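Narrative of activities, Objective 1.

The group set out to show that a structural description can be obtained from nothing but a protein's sequence at a throughput compatible with the screening campaign. Below is one input-output pair from the validation batch, recorded exactly as produced.
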Amino acid sequence: MMSQQCQMGAELDNASLELGEEKPVQKTRFEDLRPVSQGLAYHDSGANQDHSIPIGFRTLSIQVTESLHPTKGKDDVVNFFENLTYHTDDVERLCKLFGITPERGLDKAVAARNIQRDGKNTIAQAKPRYIWKLLGYLFGGFCSILWVGVIIFFICWRPLSDPPSPTNLALAIVVILVILSQAAFSGFQDWSTGRIMNSILDLLPSECVVIREGQTSRIPVSELATGDVVMLSVGNKVPADIRLIETSGDVRFDRAVLTGEAEEVEGNTEDLGETFLEAPNIALMGTHVTNGHAKGIVVLTGARTVMGRISKLTNNTKVKPTLIQQEITRFIRLIICFTVILALSILIVWLAWLHRDHPTYMNVVSMLNNVMGCVVAFIPEGMPIAVTLTLSLVARRMKSIAVLPKSLATVETLGCVTVICSDKTGTLTQNKMTVISAGFVDETYTAQQFQEILDEDKSSERVAIRQLHQAAVLCNGATFDGATADLPLADRQVNGDATDGAVLRFTESFGNAPAIRESNSQIFQVPFNSRNKWMLTMYADYTPDTEPSEGNLMFIKGAPDILLPKCTSYWSAVTNDIQPFNSEAKAKLVKTQEAWSRSGQRVILVCMRQYAPSAAVGSNDFGPEIMRSGVENLIVVGLLGLMDPPRAESATTVSECRRAGVRFFMVTGDFGLTAAAIGRQIGIITTHAEPDSFLDVVKQTSELPEGPLPTCRDAKNRIQRSLVLEGKDLVQLTERHWDVVTRYEEIVFARTTPEQKLSIVNALQTRDNVVAVTGDGVNDAPALKAADVGVAVVSGSDVAIEASDLVLMGSFDSIIGGIRLGRLVFQNLQKVIAYLLPAGSWSEIWPVLLNVYFGVPLPLSSFLMIIICCFTDLSPCLSLIMEKEEFDLLTLPPRNHKKDHLINLKIYGQAYFFIGVMETFTAHSMFFLYMWKYAHIPVRDLFFAFEKYSDGFYGHTAEELAHFNAVGQSVYFVTVVILQWGNLLSVRNKRLSILQADPIRPKRRNPWLVVGALIAFVIAIFVTEVPGIQKLFGTASVPLEFWLIPLPLALGILCMDEIRKLAVRTFPKGPIAKISW
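Output recorded for this entry:
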């Protein structure tokens, strides 16, 4: 009857499907609803915005509740959904409304028309808040204090200067240009990095299983249309708002993404609920299927869904700063504090001393220029650009190694990881299971032998073998994708998990599996989940004369250690009848299980029984009754052994992680012996002795000393043995037990539940470990979210990908590339900062201090300070971000993010008190040399000259003295630029000599160093030789010898750092090594 009515619905006038009048949906009369999309009568212009992203990757946290004072936007949304009636309409009427049948689904032409009318099934992305971004670019970081400089320079131009000073006006304009260039560059890099990240995001698959024209197939989520019939299974993210029409009886949804509540919600087809938002028969877009499976009809897509409409209210989410951003902010604040202190000290000295004792030496304008010279000098204005470029480069490199970080700082965090907890199936293994063994209590066969025996059994004498084949066919949740049904068996795509897929291929390869399925009517199913560790199917069982039998036929398959205690009899392959499952039979079965497990096979026990439920099939009480009473008095049918081969790169990945100082643990729901066998194959367990067990942990706990234990970051504090623990052991662990467990070098955790995986992560984190978790299943999601870095594989479930911080798009060993890149990014940023500080900060502040405190004519002007920071230093420092590894970074231990900061005392010592002192002393010496050689003024008379450095000083006019000072400042400038070449070559290697790692040979080749140095040289020539620049900013041409003398001095800086590196390499525990960066 329902089928006839649904077919009648298919004959509805298509013109009625395209009506789009916008009028309220009346709740009182169903007939007022427009066919197909009357929830779509609320069609909103946001539905077809260009700014959209795949639904699978937009995460919201929304609380949909009644409030005493609701906002208007949220109130409108709730009112809209309160008027919908999809949850109260029966299935027949829904089919008529959408013109479909549950078995056939939508026609492709109708689906295309619905998509054209409603838009793609995507959620409108919030438009960027460009005003706030622009303000951040213009006033964030160092720019805030530079704007103070702009204001002061303008004040010094007028009214303080009479006549107005064009130099101060020009300096104000130059600083504005610096700010604007930084803002423009940051904006461009922000856009560029976002474009790269979005291009990687597009590589992620986001698909769903639909029925169209009677064929089950996978389509992109964005191509889903209203009226589509969608198949949901455990691990899926719900792709739209869906009315459930069939369920497995135990389907549950995690609605935390919408409600913020961690408690799962049961889904069913009977309970209608009070409103659309609360109805258990509605699966809402973005929620996760955590258990069971279901079939449903898409009723709302894209911007009209609950998530789509409320997402407009959640565009003000504040982004939490990342670790690397916190480090950079810390550095900026530190520099600004030092700058303010120095500027205030100059102001105080001028007010308390210079203004009183040397009134003609420094007027208000000169004092303010010195204050701003101090500000410009101490702030490395080029650093924000360098950091921005570095992070942009990270995005490009991550794309090249097929890794998607959801935030760029995730990569740097990978460099800090000390423990990786990895799931086995689908992560360490290929998730391509194959049945290789089949057996009974009293017989075992290879898969090929089993097939041959069944094919040869023409007279059906081998009842036990036929029973195992039938049970394997009927107790299975996998199906072949209709689009690949015509392909050879091995090439067909399977919808379902890997275990069911392997059993499906096995049973389809012999016998008559389709006939078995057609002759049995399934009435109930409990899919496999990580808590129960078994799957159940129930079939209506009738005798040939149509009289009801003793009950429905039930099949269960799952973990032997879970199901064996519930078994009371078994099928014998020898006698071909049912025998009592006594202790002898159990010992035989366990022996077979352990033998297969030791060879790395996953062992599945297949059982059956007759069961007559008291509750009606499909009722709310039916599922709980089966869970409570159904899985008892089981008959053992047989065993299946499946092999999931390790990924080719798994062993290499484990080995490389160990070499990087990262412990690699396996955390799996599989049997302990199977997990240990795979662990040995891929190198997680390397010891030849039997692994320790829970009893060994208890023994070592009793021997622990009192008080806190030393950190296990140091390998010498670890237990250099292997350990295998199962879930039953984990529930017995105390905190002292965990102190022992977390010190083992090699661990396999088996038979774990999602909650136990989470407790493992928490136990490691509380003991000073930075934990990365890799996984692909729903059961991995809690641990992925709790980990410092959650890593999902792209072939994993939607839930796992949603919970992760980083997605591996290619092979598993790309995680090694992520760790290596994380460490390289951090080191290169340190090199950039160590390069910028000597000239862009230290060598610039001392001329100001000498001028203020010692009365020396200013050796370096504010304009030339700006040129050093923003131009001549910038191009060489950018070449440093292109540096390759100085050495194999995987030989370093993981960085302690609590102690090893981006900027530390060792870097300050290197930049200020080693390289900085040499550059400052050399540049001042060149300034004094020029003044002595050309102006014939000895150094001693330049100190404390104050107002004496004026007309008549050493027989020179004021104009001549100004010219000498201008040339001396340019000499100082040129000297610093050239000395930085030596710093550039030295800072690129922390420990290695340039003879070991030069920039020419292929291993460390970096042609950008030469390009950067040449650009700085050209800028220096332009600034000092162009007449217009000379006139406006007071620069002057530099005598030729002062271009040449700094060259060997730059080489001297390189040689001095080479001596430091030699001392560090020769005496790695000596005093120099301890203070070296």
